[in-house]
Amino acid sequence: MDTALPPVNHQHVAFDDGFVLECGVALKRLVVAYRTYGRLNADRSNAVLVCHALTGDQYVAETHPVTGKPGWWEMVVAPGAPIDTDRYFVICANVLGGCMGSTGPLSPRDDQEVATPWGTDFPPVSIGDMVRAQKRLVEHLGITRLFAVVGGSMGGMQVLEWAATFPEMVFAAVPVATAAYHTAQNIAFHEVGRQAILADPDWQGGRYWESGRIPARGLAVARMAAHITYLSEEALSRKFGRRLRPGPNLAHGGLTMFGEMFEVESYLQYQGSTFVQRFDANSYLTITRAMDQFDLIAEHGGDLSRAFAGTRTRFCLVSFSSDWLFPTAQSRAIARALNRAAANVSFVEITSDKGHDAFLLDEPDFHRTLAGFLGGCAEHAGLPA
Amino acid sequence: MDTALPPVNHQHVAFDDGFVLECGVALKRLVVAYRTYGRLNADRSNAVLVCHALTGDQYVAETHPVTGKPGWWEMVVAPGAPIDTDRYFVICANVLGGCMGSTGPLSPRDDQEVATPWGTDFPPVSIGDMVRAQKRLVEHLGITRLFAVVGGSMGGMQVLEWAATFPEMVFAAVPVATAAYHTAQNIAFHEVGRQAILADPDWQGGRYWESGRIPARGLAVARMAAHITYLSEEALSRKFGRRLRPGPNLAHGGLTMFGEMFEVESYLQYQGSTFVQRFDANSYLTITRAMDQFDLIAEHGGDLSRAFAGTRTRFCLVSFSSDWLFPTAQSRAIARALNRAAANVSFVEITSDKGHDAFLLDEPDFHRTLAGFLGGCAEHAGLPA
């Protein structure tokens, strides 16, 4: 399969009995790539499923095989960390539609004689589809109940979906920096990114593997636009302000003044250019679409509390004060719905100026909250300390 | 000159004695395209200069010659309106670097034998350059003092620059929805737009007039990203929410689910596609760069009050509560600096859920504020009612 991503044999499980998507398409084969950390205990009661965000993947707590960088949540998932791998068995699966080994647009299509990649013919998937794919993995691992499901941003959407769809399988749920539906503004930002990809002639109608040229510039612009939404105005001002650095001395003078550029420009360009080395453009289209479609309120007749009626799951909702992509009001609305459903729920807004990205960063208050909640739940669940 | 913009003979004045830009480049010729409304009184004391925003132009209060749409501020500039054309003589000039007739990247370059357009070789311009070009026009019209200078967003930057640089020429100043400097977040959003343009192969290093193909897709993406920042989350939710409409039934199924798209996506795509019919990509690069460079605080040694020391100009600052691009805090900082300079200043935050765009929309509170302030100033200036 000729793609821009380096070939890595990701740990995975393949289900050859098919998988029917919400859109009605039946995949003949479902591959779920995943990683685990820690040890499953004898009664299989200590499993924590971590759900990753839009551009995350299963390499939570180890060096990434493509980028060589540390895992995206090494501060949270480690021995002695809030999700303590000495105590819990941590599972993370690459989402359905992703590009790190799970079935997605890079996978060979299974509806034709000749196996070319799905590309943009890959059927639309939903957050619900992602969760049902994870459930197949969890069952494959012999686990009938997850001690906890934890995730931020799109990962938080999966946590909510898990709790709403398979409540008996979720003892504790931690939806972080997330929402029960994607707002018009969030959809709009995603659409800018998609249009940037579609505008790149190297996208080639999504069949870019044929030429070996990927829509790197469009995908980089998409990443840049998204990246701004992950940061707060305060964080950008603090990190970069209006500081200048030497810029490319371009022939076209209109682009630089006195041969300088702003540091924030250089930073964004770097974010865009490194992203395309680890992410597939068609996956980006597929997964952003899944997020946009997510609406747990509409799915339950306009009343989110119905999604959680009778639930015995313990919830801990976390938001960050400067997150304008998934603002606190969105978490508060979920907390209210859970209250209406008489659920066991705690809700913490962490004061931070780091914006949406805070859930990935060194936020001691958040980490203490997570550790405390999971520790309390573990006691109630009778997990040995 | 082969460009995508239809040829229109914009009303203009040409200065053939040259114009030295802040960057040091000396233009041999300066053309300022402009429109006026109302009548200049006998002692030339009733002139109001309106300064337009990034993608605005001089067609304030009349049908636009390219788009055929109404002027962008017809609600504000008209007989009996807040900027009453029965009372005031209103001038609006296309900014230096623009694409509606003033000297800019579409103009023939004057530093070579063969007159091709400047394109991206057009030198970088500043907000200060724009204002000095307007000053040439104002003087050409025989006006030595403007009764008022009014503008929103980048227009507001020009108002501040006018008041700081030529205080004796400005009796009253109304900077609306603006800031004394462009923040890191605002620069970041502009950079996404610029990268989208540069990523379009039809940009062709800025020499797109040679092939006759303009970077329409890149410019459309830039416009889409910017447009989101002009609206508030509330406005987007109210206008579009998560409403669906029939979408293109694309072969690539991953792009639509059940053949539908969100209304907000369709709206943004429309905004992008119509923008490219009236705006030049190189102008967009030049003008966004001018905005990014604007920093009246740094220019005055870190103390904005020095920009206005001893001023006798009367100021009315206006912000809108849901404007997150130029938030109220930015206007408040200007008001405080003016207070430190012992200036005559009033500051009004208009409650609105329409975001930055509110300054262009039907906001009765804003219009009443503007009318009242100008009326009071006119009395002080001794203008006949």
From TrEMBL, chains A, B:
Coiled coil: none annotated. It is found in: Cytoplasm. Pathway: Amino-acid biosynthesis; L-methionine biosynthesis via de novo pathway; O-acetyl-L-homoserine from L-homoserine: step 1/1. Gene3D superfamilies: 1.10.1740.110, alpha/beta hydrolase (3.40.50.1820). The keyword Acyltransferase applies. SUPFAM superfamilies: alpha/beta-Hydrolases (SSF53474). The active site is at S153, D323, H356. The keyword Amino-acid biosynthesis applies. Substrate binds at R223, D357. This is Homoserine O-acetyltransferase. It comes from Rhodovastum atsumiense. The lineage of its organism: Bacteria, Pseudomonadati, Pseudomonadota, Alphaproteobacteria, Acetobacterales.
